[in-house]
Specification:
heterodimer, A: 431 residues, Rossmann fold, six-stranded mixed sheet, globular, B: mainly alpha, binds iron/sulfur cluster
């Protein structure tokens, strides 16, 4: 298989054989009204209201957004400002759970019979990309089939980050939901081919999915090389189809739709039950956790502190949303589990490597999957040379972190690239 | 819970450091350095030690005086000192060697900002400045001591400057006159290979450099093996033309750099006044490196040619 460069990081998938269990219901959940790319939702409930599981508690008419539902039954104790981990402020609904987990009476399986009804159902489900950026799934599904016809659905089950095993457990525990979700998307959107891509370090999952899809012609199982970042959108599209997503393009420009494996499975489950996105399968792991490491179905809004208590985390020095390569560090353990959370990792005794002067060894260039030149981008950023930054195509950088990882001087190259992007004026929106 | 570390991703790092890279270079230089000491005796060892010690001291003093973070532990000064020493004759008065280190570390490296910032290879500038300042001392070569009755110095010519035939095998094994680190071509090749295998250096530069000299010599009817094994070609091609700071970043750039070095070396060796062109060729190409870098950027995946902004 032709693939792009990358790095080899140790997998540390200690939790891969931990069967998913239900996480004990927390006493209180905090549900932020912004868990997707677009404008935040407006809270539909106020202090003192009683809510039920699956009840819609936030919505908006804004384009890039998805509604938000309560993950518990209980009483709204407050609606207050909340600082997102990306620095923006939105509202968050704090709910005290009553322990009954009464299901919202409005919940019923949606009627899905064509593309439009699928898209409408997916929007109502509150689904937004479970992989990372929080791109609302219904927007992705609602592509323009005339301008950018899509012929291949790439299902991302690479899970190339160390420690995380939640997608793996999804494959092992609910293979049928994955396959049926894929078939639904293929059927209603008219996408003829599907490539279900799994990294080679999960032989059991590959075996199982091959077996389950043996009679389904439209689904191919692709074994990805064991290399980070196979799960990055541009890389997985290249590995699966050989197509290159160009500057300023979406996968749809290349006839591809990329979807996370848990997203596909969720679509199927939602179609069956109508229960919106209120909980997530999450991997709990990391050197600070001393017991109960594993995979759990956790209600969205559960404070991370509950997860740390449950795993008896000892003096964690670093707590991550997501994996060690692209995860976000938490500054406050009262931050909640979000729709796109796939792992909470807690580490003790983190030794941060010291940053030293660049020796111009070129390692960063040789490791970048996209052939960028981080060392030159850094120089251009320091010189505030916007033209050079444009020529060096910094906007293409996907923040995968390979360059920073491999740099012998341990320079924060990936971060610098993100800062450098800010210097480049955005093209005026097309009228 | 407080005191959580907040930092940009990634939160892992490869176990490599600048110090480890430099250590590999030092290891790679050792076979040829040891061979040089065997061939030329204690004097050679003294020159090497003097160069290394003075380089390290200059580096430490510079950082201290300039109130910059102390960087001696990255071992780059050891590499510079060792390389400089290996580029000297074993007969050089030690105080001159110290001056060479001063030029290399203080003037060429630290005044330009330290590691990675210098535009020319410190050891090469050190050697060239010494060549102009102490011309006669720099070209007083010791004959390898197993060729002599007495252990005393006899001023002999380096193979490139002498017309006497030298056996290829002698060049390979270091049984000839020359600089301390240049004489054992075999040791240099082993070291170079080690750096290529451990991915510390790219094979492109040495292949292009040595290849160009070989082709040009063959085309003009010269003695190819002799040209390759003698003088500073091996040490230059494997250890100095691959210096990170002063050579191009990309493979395409390294190719151009190597070919350029090869051509200039060939021209100087055959038509110039100096018998040895390797140092000059690398220095000249060092100066061109920023331009080569600008012309040989990689093509990022998915990059589109810049479109003129429509007004
Ligand atoms: S890997 Fe680090 S030290 Fe090497 S060129 Fe890139 S930024 Fe410089
Ligand atoms: S430059 Fe960007 S895309 Fe390339 S390795 Fe670094 S973070 Fe990844």
């Amino acid at each position: 298989m032709k693939t792009l460069r990358g790095i080899h990081v140790s997998h540390d998938k200690a939790t891969q054989d931990c069967e998913t269990a239900a996480f004990p219901l927390p006493e209180k959940v905090i549900i932020p009204m912004s868990q997707h790319m677009g404008a935040p939702c407006k809270a539909l409930v106020k202090k003192g209201d009683t809510v039920t599981v699956g009840q819609k508690i936030g919505d908006t008419d804004a384009f890039m957004s998805a509604p938000i539902h309560s993950s518990v039954s209980g009483e709204v104790v407050s609606v207050e400002d909340f600082l997102n981990s990306n620095g923006s402020v939105c509202q968050a609904v704090h709910i005290k759970t009553d322990g009954a987990q009464t299901v919202c009476p409005d919940i019923k399986a949606p009627e899905i019979s064509d593309k439009q009804s699928l898209i409408a159902a997916v929007r109502e489900s509150g689904l937004s990309g479970l992989g990372g950026a929080g791109f609302p799934t219904h927007i992705k599904l609602n592509y323009d089939a005339v301008k950018t016809p899509i012929d291949t659905l790439v299902i991302n089950a690479a899970e190339c980050e160390p420690h995380i095993t939640s997608d793996y457990r999804q494959l092992i525990e609910e293979p049928t939901a994955v396959i049926e979700g894929i078939l639904m998307v293929q059927k209603y959107l008219g996408i003829p081919h599907c490539k279900l891509c799994i990294e080679a370090n999960k032989p059991k999952a590959i075996e199982l999915m091959k077996e389950k899809t043996a009679s389904i012609e439209s689904i191919d199982i692709v074994t990805l090389p064991q290399q980070y970042p196979q799960g990055a959108e541009k890389v997985i599209v290249y590995s699966a189809t050989g197509r290159i997503i160009g500057e300023g393009e979406l996968p749809s420009n290349q006839g591809v739709m990329v979807m996370n494996v848990s997203t596909a499975a969720f679509i199927k489950k939602y179609a069956d039950t109508g229960m919106p996105l209120v909980s997530k399968r999450i991997t709990l792991d990391g050197s600070a956790m001393t017991k109960n490491q594993g995979n759990y179905i956790v209600p969205i809004g559960t404070p991370i502190q509950n997860l740390l208590d449950y795993t008896a985390a000892e003096n964690p020095q670093m707590v991550l949303y997501g994996g060690p390569m692209m995860g976000i560090t938490l500054y406050d353990t009262m931050q909640p589990v979000l729709k796109n959370t796939n792992a909470i990792l807690a580490f003790k005794e983190v030794k941060l490597p010291k940053t030293t002067d660049c020796i111009r060894c070129g390692t960063c260039i040789r490791t970048c999957p996209l052939n960028l030149m981080p060392v030159s981008i850094e120089a251009a950023y320091k010189a505030k040379d916007v033209d050079a930054l444009k020529e060096l195509k910094v906007m293409l950088c996907m923040n995968c972190g390979c360059c920073t990882y491999a740099c012998p001087a341990h320079r924060n190259l990936a971060e610098t690239n993100q800062l450098a992007k800010g210097l480049i004026p955005r093209p005026a929106p097309k009228k | 819970m407080k005191g959580l570390i907040v930092e940009p991703s990634p939160h892992r790092a490869a176990p490599i450091t600048t110090q480890k890279v430099m250590l590999q270079v030092i290891i790679a230089l050792l076979p040829a350095a040891i061979a040089g000491c065997v061939v030329f005796g204690v004097k050679a060892a003294l020159v090497l030690v003097t160069c290394i010690a003075s380089s390290v001291i200059f580096e430490a003093l510079c950082r201290k005086i300039m109130k910059r973070e102390q960087t001696v532990s990255d071992l780059s000064a050891v590499v510079t000192g060792l390389l400089l020493g290996m580029n000297l004759t074993s007969e050089i008065p030690l105080w001159m060697a110290v001056i060479g280190s001063f030029v290399a570390i203080v003037i060429t490296k630290q005044l330009f900002g330290g590691i990675g910032q210098n535009f020319a290879n410190p050891a090469i500038v050190g050697r060239i400045v010494m060549m102009f300042s102490f011309t006669s001392a720099m070209s007083t070569w010791a004959k390898p001591y197993w060729y002599k009755e007495s252990a005393d110095v006899i001023t002999g010519a380096t193979p490139l400057a002498s017309s006497d035939g030298v056996e290829y095998m002698d060049l390979l094994m270091g049984r000839c006159g020359g600089c301390i680190g240049e004489v054992c071509a075999l040791g240099l090749m082993i070291g170079g290979l080690y750096l290529i295998i451990t991915k510390i250096i790219s094979p492109v530069t040495p292949l292009a450099f040595i290849g160009t000299v070989a082709v040009m010599t063959a085309v003009t009817g010269g003695d190819v093996v002799y040209q390759l094994l003698s003088g500073g070609l091996m040490i230059g091609a494997f250890f100095m033309a691959t210096d990170y700071a002063t050579t191009p970043l990309t493979s395409k750039g390294k190719l151009i750099f190597g070919i350029g070095c090869g051509l200039i070396t060939f021209v100087i060796r055959n038509y110039g006044n100096y018998p040895e062109g390797v140092s000059f060729s690398i220095l000249l190409m060092n100066l061109l490196t920023p331009y080569i870098d600008r012309l040989t950027r990689t093509k990022p995946l998915g990059a589109k040619p810049a479109v003129k902004e429509a007004k």
